[in-house]
Amino acid sequence: MIIRLVLSALLALSLAAPVWAQEAYRLPPAPITQIIDAEPTPGISLSRDRKVMAVIGRENLPSIAAVSEPILRLAGTRLNPRTNGPTEARTAYLRSLEFVTVGGGARVKAKLPEGMRFFGLSWSPDGRRVALVGEAAEGLELWVVEVATGRANRASPARLNGTFGTPYSWLPDSSGFLVRLTVADRGPPPAAPAAPSGPLVQESRGRAAPVRTAQDLLASPHDEALFDHYFTSRLARVGLGGGAITYIGEPGIISGASVSPDGRYILTTRLKRPYSYIVPAGRFPTEIAVIDWSGRKVKAVVDRPLADNLPPPFDAVVTGPRAVSWRDDAPATLVWAEAQDGGDPRTKVEIHDRVLMQAAPFTAQPTVLADLKERYSGVEWGRADFALVRSAWFDTRHETWLAVNPARPGATRVLVSRNYQGRYDDPGTVLSRTLPNGRSVIRFSADGRSMLLAGQGDTAEGSFPFLAEMSITDGKSRRLWTSGKDDYEAVVDVADDRAQSLITRRENRQTPPNYVLRSLKGGKPVLLTDFPDPAPQFAGVTKQEVKYKRADGVQLSGTLYLPAGYDAKRDGPLPMLMWAYPAEFTDAAVAGQTVDRSNRFVRPGGTSHLFLLTQGYAIFDNPSMPIVGVKGAEPNDTYVEQLTANAEAAVKAVVDLGVADRDRIAIGGHSYGAFMTANLLAHTDLFRAGIARSGAYNRTLTPFGFQSEQRTYWEATDTYTKMSPFTYAPQIKEPILLIHGGADDNSGTFPVQTERFFAALKGAGATARYVVLPNEAHGYRARESTLHTLWEMTDWMDRYVKAAGPRK
User: Is 788 marked active-site?
Assistant: First the structure.
């Protein structure tokens, strides 16, 4: 009853219109701006045979003017109407490109045209070229760069349609591309009506359709017309050497197209009407089919209706064929999964998913590759007698790796069975090799009895990346190479067919990551890159892993950073910011797996809280915030109690070390970490202030689940209410800084969440500041927004934490 009265009062308060004040963008104190403006460290991309490395110079943060270019938000996707492609905020542009021979040799700089921006790099199967998407004034173009000479040429003047991701793929013989083009004669975009023709109406007729909150959905007939205009594309073949275009089939809303490994067929995915205003495009009516190069339909795989009625649990799926793809080690064989439980994981059945195969010409009955007790999560193809099928189950956080024989399908044997949140027993990632047609298959050991894996090698003492071989008979692993204690050296890939040499990414606490070629037989490693420290101002920052226990015995840890030059005897306890993000677990032992990462090189970027180290603050980064459900219990039913226990243990740990002043500790987080921040301020007196960015604070506004919560509001009303800091806004007495992107695109974290929460705080007399970053999404991208966020955080900490006196 009390909770209902509080909610009613706060809801009435929230109806007051907010009073806005437009402020200029501010710059944070030195040296933060200088670090943000430093040249980004390049990235790399290896050729398919691992003989050449592309070194990719990256653009720095875009301006707010660029981020503020017009965008369209349609069916869960954002696009730039000028280019018919991705928006500035979602594109990592390259500014330079250089080719380096692995192991020594020529360095060739790509001769990219001035004034153009590029993204979407992809190697040709033969390794002689890379393709790029170029952003011209009128749209997107396909460009090709010769690796040997660096010469760049436009492959075709046709405009690419980038609304569904990278709009091209190489043909298996490297002779050209399959592309998605905009429709040349589509005309101007549909104009918005001068006046509405009537009301917008949605109707429910007794058919359950529970869907999680999503942003950027269609909302009107005009949106539907815009969706048709921009998302309609046409398939075409573009050849090298002249760029001849051959159109394939009719235009349509083509969300996917993939050439078969032998190059004879194309697997297509088309979306159809009726569209929906409550789910994104991926759930629209979908037709998946195989066509030939004339556009003739060879095989209809599935024609499924609108999927707006999936059950709330995470393992719910559509019925009929899904996850349709080509078998990588066969000429033209389809593989897909079909639910055996009606798509509802709550149905009690022995087999939840069935994986099937069907080879060209697709006239024989499909073959059952494997029956799964969990949901299908993918397959890695190896050879005629071996493939690895994966399955997982969210309720138990369990995963299984199954060995199958495609030549004798049906029988399976378990190679791995584990809690996928476990860190100490993670087997690693299966390495692959590239076939001449560009398809990737499992990389086996020289004797063919094992497959090669690379992993993090997490232990309680630290991370020791490794190369291993796993028996394809019994799943037992043997380490072939392990990184040393001083450096963190992760395996990128093997560099030769016999796996006698590795390409690794090596770093330590003082040395930035660079790429190395090393032989397993020993000898001095060859340095492939020499990237400098992007932020030498951080060179004196110290870092250590702190381990401690929760009151109930669950093992916790966090990374403690101290400012350069800090001396405990001289400087005493410091003001501190804790920055965290909760996570749900089903096993307390797994939740308590801690890893010492003190040998990693760390430099901040973007809106990182670590920048506060330059202003005299200690930072306790990512202190464990596990929410554990034991023996089938739902973790969130004791969310507040466990969150409080986690925070109490973290505060005690850093205070006992003598590095943090108990009276000057703040708590902060982004997204679900912002939700955590508000809850800790509402339910504890541990912190002097809080910083909450892009969060959600009222769980009744996400009634069909949130984060890892699968139950609906009506199934767990008390949990939803108690987890919502909005319910307890009058209890927040400490100053709280709320920041939100004005164009947040994340599920559940609508800007109205922060707007209503601030109204509740203001009505209750709290000390709060609400900052909206114009045109920013869930993550902040523009230089001005980034710097202003860091100014806000520094100013808030200076006012309410550094300057705070002892608690009364």
Answer: no
